[in-house]
Design goal:
Elements lengths: L2 H22 L4 E2 L1 H21 L3 H11 L3 H6 L9 H12 L7 H25 L4 E2 L1 H10 L1 H17 L8 H4 L3 H33 L4 H8 L2 H20 L11 H8 L1
Parallel strand pairs: 1-2
């Protein structure tokens, strides 16, 4: 996104994101960094749509498969849209230098439904942790756990990497792994992360709690939801191990659907 257009994109996207969020979740806060992360992701979605679906019929098929409820929204021509179609059309032309052939209402509807979906995932995740605000890290987590969003992120990463091979340096040893080998590597990485959390709790958080017993709030401000993160990581790792063990045939791929579904819920 060019710097001279970034303010215009923010003017288009930020009000719509805030409207959707506080209309559905008035008791929770959406931090500025989280809102900014959503704006960046919506821009990636837009770039993905224009690159993958240059014609209306292609986008229409993708939209109905992934967001079937969008049909109702598109049929209501009189409904007030969250993202201005005229402004979106102008920015697409300025940013990408093309007059898109598809009906711009499909693009606007896609952005709106992706925003709703992302906000719901983030709200449900944060709510289960007992927090009342969403930050950028929460957005990153739910984006990478949703299959639709992950496909978009991968597509954007591959496109950018092809355009500039020096930006992304992929570990060749990991790139050469099979799917199941990657899963095992992922489990090892998560296990190490869990061990690191245990060290933080045992050798830093707990001793500091004893030392600053009269100012526990300071300790909580420093370590945040460390216990919740540890518990969530432990459950997630257990689900990953179960998925690896529950294969009927060793030749079959390990399914990560259930572990990530439980993680989001």
């Amino acid at each position: 996104m060019s710097s001279n257009l970034s303010a215009q994109w923010e003017k288009l996207l930020r009000p719509g994101i805030s409207t959707l969020f506080y209309r559905e979740y008035p008791l929770m806060e959406l931090r500025d960094d989280a809102c900014q992360r959503i704006q960046e992701f919506l821009y990636k979605i837009l770039r993905f749509l224009l690159r993958q679906f240059p014609h209306r019929v292609e986008l229409e098929q993708w939209l109905y498969i992934n967001y079937p409820e969008a049909q109702y929204a598109l049929n209501r021509s009189s409904r007030k849209r969250i993202f201005s179609i005229d402004q979106l059309q102008t920015l697409i032309h300025k940013e990408f230098g093309i007059q898109n052939e598809m009906d711009i209402s499909y693009v606007a509807t896609t952005l709106e439904h992706c925003t709703k979906d992302l906000l719901k995932l983030a709200h449900d995740y944060v709510n289960r942790l007992g927090k009342n605000e969403i930050v950028a890290n929460d957005i990153d987590l739910v984006m990478n756990a949703d299959t639709i969003f992950l496909d978009i992120l991968r597509s954007d990463l591959n496109s950018t990497a092809n355009g500039s091979s020096s930006i992304y340096n992929i570990d060749t040893s990991i790139a050469a792994m099979s799917y199941n080998e990657l899963i095992r590597h992922f489990i090892i990485t998560e296990t190490q992360y869990k061990d690191d959390l245990e060290l933080l709790i045992k050798f830093f958080r707990n001793p500091l709690r004893q030392f600053f017993d009269v100012d526990l709030q300071t300790i909580e401000n420093i370590f945040g939801c460390l216990d919740d993160i540890y518990e969530l990581t432990t459950r997630f790792l257990s689900d990953l191990e179960d998925a690896k063990e529950m294969r009927d045939d060793i030749t079959k791929s390990i399914s990560l659907y259930e572990p990530f579904q439980n993680f989001i819920e």
